[in-house]
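Lab channel / #folding
Pinned by the channel admin:
"Please post every new chain as: sequence first, then the structure tokens as a reply. Keep commentary short and put observations after the output so the thread stays searchable."

First post following the new format, from NK:
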Amino acid sequence: MGKLLVRWFIKNPDDVDNEDVRYAYGRLSSFTGIVCNLLLFALKLILGIVSGAISIISDAFNNLSDCLSCLITLFGYKLAAKPADREHPFGHGRMEYIVSFIVAVIIFVVGFELLRSSIESLLHPEAVLFSVYTVVILVVSILVKLWMAGFNRMLGTKLNNIAMIAAAEDSRNDVVTTAAVLASMILSQFSSFPFDGAAGVLVSLFILWSGVEISREIISRLLGQPASYELTQKIREIILAHPEVIGVHDMIIHDYGPGKQFGSAHAEVDANMNFLNAHEIIDNAEREVYEKTHVSMTLHLDPVVLDDPRINRYRTEVERVLESLSPSLSMHDFRVVFGEHHNNLVFDVLIPYGCSASQEDIQKAIDAHFANRDPKIYTVITFDRAYTGMKEEGDEDKAEK
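Reply from TO:
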């Protein structure tokens, strides 16, 4: 059903980086949510009033708040689709994150209100009327919300849209809420215990926790989390596909919303290579990165001396020391300044987060190595941190190299 709606209402559905296409997906998600939630609100409100179940009435207003969320996200999608302008030269894509945060706030409000009413129902329980019609409608509500959760998750995953994923989480919460209401209504027929209020408390805590999880993800994106390992690895492979490029390092990806990413990196080439040829290769690599990943990449040309045996020997020795400390450590921008009385080894070392080796450990190990083998050697080391994601976060052996 979801794929059928996409075919009916979305033109060029695979062009997910296009603002107009993303807005079309946003409209489809929002209008579908509004229609479904209004229908469920009306049915549950009538049921709650007739049966006297506070949990059903709370669940009904939860659906009404979902309609408000859909309206807010619809407005947000429209703003996110606006093209770049003088005040916002990188576009308005981050509006999707802001809208997602508003949805998270609404989830918090609903959770707290449900917790309040549920505690009141525990303290002052009232009889809950049971009927087959109520059970049927609640089961239908669960099925509708299950479909909505799957539909929004499908769209959110396809578009990398956290607002749709948040909507999917909200629908999942509604499934749990309604299932708990249904269970409490059945159990209340066999005991005087206020299952209605107890179920409401448990469900409200579940909703509040989901709001925390969604908020954490949104805040992380707004603060500036690293680009995924998969994206950076793909960019690296595109650049290194050019045989003249020896290595890639110092990659940074800035996120201004889905489909609005800008990046930079250093690409190493042979120092003896013709400058014009090297510039053409770098230009081609930048163009290919944009065509295949939609990331606007700027590459800095790094010349590397490869035909000097002394420099190569020093480079190899430093790499061996780093390897002995941790396989996740890597080096770049290596050069040697030869002097009359001593030689300076100048290079950068990338220390991934989670690596057990400290800057002091690395400095001491390298200096001790050369002190025993060549006292004329001095090291000038710049220590870097990675700005892109690892294959497995926190695992130093999977760090970016």
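NK: Strands lie at 245-255, 261-270, 295-304, 330-338, 343-350, 377-384.
TO: also worth noting, Residues 19-51 form the longest helix (33 residues).
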